[in-house]
Amino acid sequence: MNINRKHKQHRLLVGMAALALAGCAAYFSVFGLTQLFVGASIAGIILFSALEFGKIVAVSYLQNYWKMISMFRKIYMTLGVIVLMLITSMGIYGFLSAAYESTSTNMKNVESKVKVIENKKSNLNLEINRYQEQIDFRTKRLTNLSDLRSQQESRIDKLYNNESYYQVKNVEKTITDANTEIDNINKEITKYNESISLLTDSISKYDIQILEMQNNEFAQDLGTFKYISRLLNKPMDSIVNFLILFIIIVFDPMAIAFLIAFNQITNLLQTKET
Question: How many CA atoms lie less than 13 Å away from 37 in the CB half-sphere?
Answer without folding.
Answer: 15
